[in-house]
Amino acid sequence: MAFASLLAATRPASAQEAAIGEREPIAEAARFRLDLRAGLGVRHDTLTTDAARIGARGTALSDFVLGGAWFHGRSPIGFAGRVELDRFALRTDSGGSSVAATGLEAHGAAAGRLHPGDGQVLLEAQLGYGFLQVPLGRVPGADGSLPASTDTLRAHGPVIAALVAVAPHDALTLELSGRAVPISFGGSYHGTDVSVRRLAAGIGATIGRVRVADFRLGALVSYELGNTTADESGVSVQQLRHQIAFGVRATPHNARRAAPPPREEIVQPARGRIRGVVRLQAGDALAGVAVAAVDGPSTRTGADGSFALGEVPPGLVRVNLSRADLVPSQEVVSVPPGGEVTVQITLRLAQAPAPAVLIGLVRGEDGKPVPAKVRLLEPSLAADADERGRFRFEVPAGRYTLTIEAPGFVTQKKSVRAGAGEQNIYNVDLQAER
Fold first, then answer.
1. Residue 27 phi, psi dihedral angles, 5° rounding
2. Are strands 121-136 and 151-169 parallel, antiparallel or unpaired?
3. Please, what are the averages of pLDDT over each run of 10 residues along the chain (434 residues)?
């Protein structure tokens, strides 16, 4: 086939290989390819000028095509190229002597590819620029034979190509291709500018696969129908060509990819659930108690003292319980995997610290009791000493300033310390004013 951007379908070579490695899609094998083909071409040319109409037929036994494409890994963008050289014998429609003619077509292009589905289908397109050398017969002599040489029309222009390939079997790829030079530049025939247009379509197959060194080789079989035309003032060209070609395609050998060992799934033990009720020692339900599993969920008790902790890891679970007016507690609960455990928890109220007691006796210089006024400055407490001179305060533990006042006596001030739950006794002797 005259279209160079064909496809090598390379899959695992055997059922054993397929069992060991992954199925190799077209995308893996088409990183690059190189095609070399030779074949038989049959053509029919018709050249019409203002002077004459020439009909010629040719047969090419030496038609060579070298083509290929390259893509970087799985990239959808790559490069492609193609060179075709044919050497054929051209005869007039009426027979007679033949003349040798050489045709040439070459182009380079950017290529794009797409692999829909499971990667065993390839859609490929090319856009590039190429060169054409089209041999045309001259006016025959008086005896109807062609001159010893032909006229050669050379031109250049854009090239558009497309390919669809399917791999229905491990060793078979079917291909459908098309190529077009919609317009050319720089062509002329006997001083008349000529723009050449070329269209080609073909089918083909890649059969078999043999590994040689780091490459895989497959046999190519293709057929292409081509049509070259030009229709300018004074010149009309119509060329029809049939080409059958055989060749070989080389593609990279991708190392067989061993299937990764199955991953061992770590099975997490099923989590459990803790339900319970929190009460006082007297039996009253406790609401609003914070309940938290260490490194796990947390909640608060309801109005009836109940709580529930879900998604708790199995095993021994520490549960902390707290409320501002309660003594904090920690319980250890054994939770079965995927099961539920019910607990009853009793808490104690937090007791307030015992107050400190300050007591004392106020006396005069003669040792008799004095009914004085006694004050603690910091909490602003005051008390009158009784008829026996005694006073008493109950205060939180701490340090205080004690003042004692009585008419006719010098006021005294003392710094005192009160310990929690302790009775602190301070006797005061007042001095009379002078």
1. -60, -30
2. antiparallel
3. 35 35 47 80 60 55 80 84 81 63 88 77 90 73 59 87 86 90 84 84 88 83 86 74 84 62 76 93 89 92 94 92 91 91 90 81 89 88 89 87 91 87 85 84
Q: How many whole angstroms separate alpha carbon 289 and alpha carbon 158? A: 83
First-residue to last-residue Cα distance in the chain? 139
Residue at token pair 């030079």: 181
Q: Which long-range contacts (CB under 8 A, 24 or more apart) does 8-14 make?
A: 8/33, 8/173, 8/206, 8/216, 8/218, 8/249, 8/251, 9/120, 9/165, 9/167, 9/172, 9/173, 9/206, 10/209, 10/216, 10/251, 10/254, 11/167, 11/170, 12/170, 12/256, 13/170, 13/209, 13/211
Return d(Cα 274, Cα 272) in angstroms, integer. Answer: 7
- Residues contacting residue 145 through CB under 8 Å, at least 6 positions apart: 92, 96, 97
pTM above 0.70, yes or no: no
CB count in 10 Å sphere of residue 420: 11
Q: Mind listing the domains of the chain with CATH numbers?
A: 15-252 (2.40.128.90), 272-347 (2.60.40.1120), 356-429 (2.60.40.1120)
